[in-house]
Specification:
- The chain has 509 residues and is an alpha/beta fold.
- It has two domains: 164 residues, 2-Layer Sandwich (Ribosomal Protein S5, domain 2), CATH 3.30.230.10; 229 residues, P-loop containing nucleotide triphosphate hydrolases (Rossmann fold, 3-Layer(aba) Sandwich), CATH 3.40.50.300.
- The relative contact order is 0.10.
Length: 509
């Protein structure tokens, strides 16, 4: 006898509908799975058999063939376990086709028949093409975020069979655990001093500009970076759905009752590998930290300690907002649109350019600076030196503006960008910049001198116009860009303590 059950598998962060077909016939006892299953999928034959027997049902005495259609799509993970088990029970006439009609099943099976959550449940539920889906209890809240599907859950396979037969009711919606107080962001009001750093954060939030902060230990670089998400607007519905899919597929954690609407903040350790940062893997392709930061902030603390190869892998997603991972098993595109914030010491000892005495030789500083390639450094729209605040600022300085006050200006600037057809100004191309950000005579003269002196590349000139446009938007001014807008953009871009030369120069405090 044959049976067909609906389910889904994960391809990157997107679900793909799969039809599980089971054929049970007489012959020597055997269990075969075809349809390009990976190792974890092939292992389901042992989990399914143990779960069926543990649930009190008889396992077929003959040959069982499982086909995972479409046959040309690679199947990964254990999410097809439940669908295979239900299809076997239908083929053995424990259940009827009418009792499973209109249901999809997405869960891993324990050897005792219990149902377990699988990564990417949200994407899997969105992919099924039937009106009802059965998941594990701990995946129920996540599955309900998938749209208008009717979501049901059962504790184990035996109870599920009773529910499908109408002998018992499906479980009531489980009580969601209390949500952590994740909506309280660190406030910019707590930052003492650092007026230039605060200004750079505001511009980065309004225009989506990448920021590099260089300064001695304890200057406040990490403190500033952690307050950037509090300046960003909430994610819209589509972006929230994309971010929630990423967190679900990568097992980064998903909310219990709603989509992720707060811009994410990711701060991977400097020992992170290429796969951990950009995503991928040898068999199962999963999103990395840069995709987990989609719609929010990727903060790379101690940037000089990251592997240069890992850092250079950021260059393409910084330009395109997407990361393409290609392996022998296939190619996957992950969303990767984020604001990059890097922080590093000016030298290995950290005292160069500051009040302390630098113990590093010129050769050591050069080696340290070379960890950041020129092309990567060129992609930072703003680079500034962060000095330690003075004692007077720490003990007697008045609190600055709150994040809420700054966020109002950021939202107003983003509304201006939306009228240009983009979410923020850093998304504008060269042709759009010519139209939206014309330069005044004074601004054009400043930009021309910077290009002629070698301070700006062609990309740098475009980024200067973007930053200048954001500065004008925050000030409520219409183009053309003034000389002051371009001058500030140039000051923010040209690191006052160069990473590739002597550290004896001046800096902006």
């Amino acid at each position: 006898m044959t049976a067909r059950i609906s389910s889904a598998v994960l391809q990157g962060v997107i679900g793909q509908a799969v039809s599980v077909e089971v054929h049970s016939s007489k012959g020597l006892p055997a269990f075969a799975i075809v349809g390009l299953p990976d190792a974890s999928c092939r292992e389901s034959r042992d989990r399914v058999r143990a779960a069926v027997l543990s649930s009190g049902f008889k396992w077929p005495d003959g040959r069982v063939t499982v086909n995972l259609a479409p046959g040309g799509l690679r199947k990964e993970g254990a999410g097809l376990d439940l669908a295979i088990a239900v299809a076997v029970l239908v083929a053995e006439e424990v259940l009827t086709k009418a009792q499973t009609d209109g249901f999809a099943f997405v869960a891993e099976l324990g050897l005792d028949g219990s149902l377990r959550r699988v990564p990417g449940t949200l994407s899997l539920v969105e992919a099924v093409q039937v009106p009802r889906v059965v998941v594990a209890e701990d995946a129920y809240a996540e599955a309900t975020l998938g749209g208008d599907l009717e979501v049901q859950w059962a504790p184990n396979l035996a109870e599920l069979v009773r529910c499908l037969k109408g002998e018992a009711d499906f479980g009531l919606p489980p009580t969601a655990p209390p949500a952590a107080d994740a909506d309280v962001a660190e406030d910019l009001r707590d930052v003492r001093g650092q007026p230039f750093g605060r200004r750079a954060l505001e511009i980065a939030a309004a225009g989506g500009h990448h920021l590099l902060m260089v300064g001695p230990p304890g200057a406040g670089k990490t403190m500033l970076a952690r307050r950037l998400p509090g300046l960003l607007p909430p994610l819209d519905t589509e972006a929230a759905r994309v971010v929630t899919r990423i967190y679900s597929a990568g097992d980064f954690g998903v909310p219990t009752s709603a989509l992720i609407t707060r811009p994410p903040f990711r701060a991977p350790h400097h020992s992170a590998t290429m796969v951990a940062l950009v995503g991928g893997g040898s068999r199962t392709l999963r999103p990395g930290e840069i995709s987990a930061a989609h719609g929010g902030v990727l903060f790379l603390d101690e940037l000089g300690e990251f592997s240069p190869v890992v850092l250079d892998a950021l260059r393409q997603p910084l330009e395109e907002g997407v990361i393409r991972v290609s392996r022998a098993a296939g190619s996957i595109s992950f969303p990767a649109e984020f604001v990059l914030v890097g922080s590093m010491n000016p030298c290995p000892c950290g005292n160069a350019g500051g009040p302390g005495h630098c113990r590093c030789s010129d050769a050591a500083r050069v080696r340290y600076a070379r960890r950041l390639s020129g092309p990567l450094l060129d992609r930072f729209d703003m680079r500034l030196f962060v000095q330690r605040p003075s004692a007077d600022e720490l003990f007697r300085g008045a609190p600055g503006e709150s994040s809420a006050a700054v966020r109002k200006r950021v939202l107003a600037a983003r509304r201006r960008a939306a009228r240009r057809g983009v979410r923020y100004n850093s998304m504008l191309g060269s042709r759009a910049l010519e139209r939206e950000a014309p330069l005044s005579l004074e601004a054009a003269a400043l930009a021309e001198r910077a290009v002629a002196s070698g301070e700006l590349s062609a990309r740098g000139l475009q980024r200067i116009r973007c930053v200048g446009l954001t500065i004008a938007d925050l000030g409520g001014r219409r183009p053309p860009l003034r000389g002051a807008d371009v001058a500030l953009a140039l000051q923010l871009r040209n690191n006052p303590v160069p990473l590739d030369r002597s550290y004896a120069g001046s800096h902006v405090a």
